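Researcher: Please predict.
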Amino acid sequence: MSNPVLAEVTRGNLVESVHEGVVAVVDADGRTVLELGDADRPVFPRSAVKALQALPLMESGAADRFGLTPAEIALACSSHSGEPLHAETAAAMLAKAGRDAGCLECGAHWPLGEAATRELARSGERPTALHNNCSGKHAGFVCLACGLGEDPAGYVGPDHRVQREVRAAMEEMTGENLSEAARGVDGCSIPTYATPLRGLALAFARVGTGHGVGRERAAALARIRAAAAAHPFMVAGTGRFDTEMMGLFGERVFCKTGAEGVYCAALPEVGLGIALKCLDGHGRAAQVMLAALVRRFLPLSEPESTRLEALSHPALVNWNGIRVGGVRPAGPLA
């Protein structure tokens, strides 16, 4: 099956680059509403599935045992920019479990947010694991391990109970068998499993509706959605696409980026889950694809439509502030 061009980059009046993609839009009963390209091809979802990875934290009771706030729950599902509030919140989560940043096994990198990186460098400090964009998720894993009475050491390994619980939740939500043959290692060192986009879309239809997952899991998913809607800054950061989208729509849209051009989203009011991949891994193009799909399936007010237009057609501006082109949906998403 050929994969269509779903986004294009313009310069002046000409198309300069094109991005092929694959899309699956599914309802909570597993019915396909839209398929573009080969939606059965497994892809590594990377960070797009952090809401699913947070389910054991919620369902085990660990989140309540340690009194995690909605902002902290949102951070557990985040790929944050490493801004001060992000790092402070991850540290607070660990402290509630009687741990500190020394327990984190995600590694350290400079903040994704340029302003945060400049401020950290200006202060003469070096980044720690708290600045890693996955530190909230990892703080949640440490809380889960402690809540289960497990030693958190080695929690990133596939055989640690934390990752076994995460894998089970992923399999139940996607309806897919996540085999060892499909396992890779994510950037933050936890296992990542190649999963068909159709299964990912089904999982996010369930994230948005709670349909077919049982009462307790539906309640956990509702808490995760509410936390992200109330604290979209925690899910990404200043000026980031996910924060802008959920800041605009609140609980009407839950969306989460993953590395290499993956996006997953839930549209609760229409009962749909979306999973997509920009095949060349370009995150900017993947954002445009997702914005176009939200426009297609979600009823919009005039202010929402205006704001979404800016997100689905971002301008490209040069160093002198001159608009030189843009990115826009293409092909069946145009």
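Model: The chain has one domain: 5-333.
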